[in-house]
């Protein structure tokens, strides 16, 4: 993060139940990082992304929050792009480049995190083009709630508090990002689908089990039918 052209004020690592070896890595990282690092942990009780995100939100005084996953590499202007595009009453969703399995292995071995042009094996490589001109043309406000990437989102903390954060009814993989998007829209917030800026590269890995999608779809459908604005189980 210290290599970002606009570094964040702090880094919060939201840890959903990792063991002590992860804490040792984070402690080592914290000592080498110039930016303050907070390690927020919760007990392993299955996939509880909404819960650990809420715990992280409670543990920061920053007024604008950028969410990323632990399996992505950030363009050096990633933070800058989110900050430059923030506006009152707006939240931002971005895209990602999906690196191939072989390319992911190569990068992990060589520790080469610089991406030059589009000469690397990946899906959605157009998402790796950073252009302020193209971004102005193709970035649009929209009301879509699906295909939202929680690994590339940003919000005002006050807006997250208004919708009571992420809904911890969602456990297992899926739909918590669609749910908070819908509740933000129900509270008259604007969603910016940011293109050709806020670039990130997703490392290949096997997908998580998706056996909770049907349950989570039912919760999302309740949010839709009830025009829900606040999380049922959220920040407070």
Structure annotation, total helices: 8
**What's the mean pLDDT score?**
96
List SSEs in N-to-C order: EHEHEEHEEHEHEEHHEEH
Low-confidence stretches: none
Give me the side-by-side strand order of the main sheet.
3-9-5-10-8
User: Quick one: biggest sheet?
Assistant: 5 strands, mixed
Percentage of residues in strands: 15-25%
DSSP, total strands: 11
Terminal CA distance reads 30 Å
Kindly provide the radius of gyration, computed on alpha-carbon positions and rounded to a whole number of angstroms: 18 Å
Name the overall outline: globular
Assign a percent range to the helix content: 25-40%
Structural class estimated from helices and strands: alpha/beta
How is this structure best described in words?
33% of the residues lie in helices and 18% in strands. It has helices at residues 20-32, 49-58, 78-85, 101-110, 132-138, 157-162, 176-186, 213-225; strands spanning 11-16, 37-42, 64-68, 72-74, 90-93, 97-99, 122-123, 140-141, 152-156, 190-193, 200-202. Helix 7 (176-186) runs parallel beside helix 8.
Give a topology summary.
Elements: E1 11-16, H1 20-32, E2 37-42, H2 49-58, E3 64-68, E4 72-74, H3 78-85, E5 90-93, E6 97-99, H4 101-110, E7 122-123, H5 132-138, E8 140-141, E9 152-156, H6 157-162, H7 176-186, E10 190-193, E11 200-202, H8 213-225
Parallel strand pairs: 1-2, 5-10, 6-11
Antiparallel strand pairs: 3-9, 4-11, 5-9, 6-7, 8-10
